[in-house]
Write a structure and sequence with these properties.
Layout: E1 7-13, H1 24-47, H2 60-64, H3 70-78, E2 94-99, E3 104-107, H4 113-124, E4 131-135, E5 159-164, H5 166-176, E6 202-209, H6 219-224, E7 226-229, E8 234-236, E9 239-247, E10 251-259, E11 262-267, H7 281-297, E12 302-306, H8 311-314, H9 336-345, E13 350-354, H10 362-379, E14 382-385, E15 391-393
Parallel strand pairs: 3-4, 4-5, 5-6, 6-7, 11-12, 12-13, 13-14
Antiparallel strand pairs: 1-2, 1-15, 2-3, 8-9, 9-10, 10-11
The structure holds zinc ion (2 copies).
């Protein structure tokens, strides 16, 4: 691709909870759709060369500009307007930002991190500068599972700086010992055969923490990690990153990332809670987190935000991928309707709703996306279902 003007944002994983790919029946459905589209366009092209009596007045060679070989068929296909295949989901959460001043910043290390790391390794080639910053949201498996499959961790020339909350750093360190070079022997080898001894990149960690309200870190933790106050901005070259706490309800961080005045808000795994009195402590915490998110999202260019459920599913009146509903209160995820309202209120130019529920069918993902697209036409603010492999230039 060409020069990066400000930020290039890559979506490697937008699937919530676990990697999900469409089953055969849904792949067959998608195939049928694309086949029908192709056939309709080919026949409509032939129709342009059909006499009023219904006779086709064109030879195959005239239509294709030569014999029906791969080259001519490919050129003919390019003249058709075929819709893009949409991949709603796939790998779990991982994003990457390439900045105009040459930095690579990764957000979360779900299973999408494996492909992300391949791209980074390919881009870095033999270059000398090999620093990667990873910003973690929280420790859940779908945000950390790709770490030990990532090529960047196995190159001794690479330096990887992980900035995240305590749980995210703890999850990586307990599993792999990459920061402390110590492992709890009871945990060694339980989740992965790998550990820091087999991962030759160098690792550094900074815990993002509210240093004014939290008790000071233990001496042992302070010997391993550096500390950054959640209210302070992180600066990487020309990029300014503001972390903020969201409600999952366990600790989770969102990030407002600004480069040359362009803003990307990353907010995975956050719940705007419904269903209790405003005095309920979790309700208060959720509303406070939503207010922080709103403050950081005002006028943003692009936002990625968790919208795992429809309101009817959150309330438990309907299941996701199953007829039987169950209340999703305190599952830590938001309703699509709330994301739409919030992003319109904040006048966010482009909103991508992600962390798709693993049980949501591809057909339904498509239907929701089309509904969002109609709403966008009415409001002028672009809202869509996040799709894997999306690349945005800001
Ligand atoms: Zn998640
Ligand atoms: Zn989570």
């Amino acid at each position: 691709m060409d020069t990066i003007e400000n930020m290039r944002i890559h979506f490697y994983g937008v699937q919530g909870s676990g990697s999900v790919f469409p089953p055969k029946a849904e792949r067959d459905n998608a195939r049928l759709f694309t086949d029908m589209e192709l056939l309709q366009q080919v026949f409509s092209r032939l129709n342009e060369h059909t006499s009023p009596e219904g006779k086709i007045n064109v030879s195959l060679e005239e239509l294709l500009g030569g014999p029906a070989n791969r080259k001519n068929l490919t050129a003919f296909r390019e003249t058709l307007e075929l819709s893009e295949q949409r991949v709603y989901g796939g790998w779990t959460t991982c994003f990457r930002i390439e900045t105009s001043d040459g930095h690579d910043i990764v957000l979360d290390c779900g299973s999408g991190f494996r492909i992300c790391a391949e791209d980074i390794s390919r881009k870095w080639g033999e270059q000398e500068k090999r620093n990667l910053t990873i910003l973690g949201s929280h420790a859940h498996f779908d945000h950390t599972e790709g770490f030990d499959q990532a090529a960047v961790c196995f190159d001794p020339r690479n330096h990887i700086h992980v900035m995240a909350n305590n749980h995210f750093l703890k999850a990586l360190d307990q599993n792999l010992g990459i920061f402390s070079h110590e492992m709890d022997m009871d945990l060694k080898g339980i989740q992965t055969p790998l550990n820091y001894e087999l991962m030759p990149a160098s690792f550094e960690s900074t815990e993002i923490r509210d240093l004014t309200t939290n008790p000071p870190p233990t001496e042992k933790d302070a010997a391993i990690h550096q500390y950054h106050d959640v209210n302070e901005t992180i600066t990487i070259g020309k990029t300014k990153i503001q972390p903020f706490e969201v409600f999952h309800p366990d600790p989770c961080l969102g990030y407002r990332i600004e480069h040359n005045g362009k803003v990307f808000v990353y907010c995975t795994d956050h719940e705007l809670r419904h269903g209790d009195s405003p005095e309920h402590p979790l309700q208060i915490a959720s509303i406070e987190a939503e207010e922080r998110l709103i403050a950081h999202s005002m006028g943003a260019d692009v936002m990625y935000r968790d919208g795992q459920f429809l309101q009817i599913e959150y309330d438990g009146d309907k299941g996701v991928g199953a007829p039987m509903g169950v209340s999703r209160k305190d599952w830590g995820h938001s309703c699509i309707e709330d994301v739409m309202n919030m992003s319109e209120h904040c006048k966010v130019k482009q909103t991508y709703i992600g962390h798709h529920d693993p049980n949501r069918s591809w057909l339904e993902r498509n239907w929701i996306d089309e509904t969002l697209s109609r709403r966008s036409e009415q409001t002028g603010f672009d809202i869509e279902m996040a799709k894997a492999e999306t690349v945005i230039d800001l």
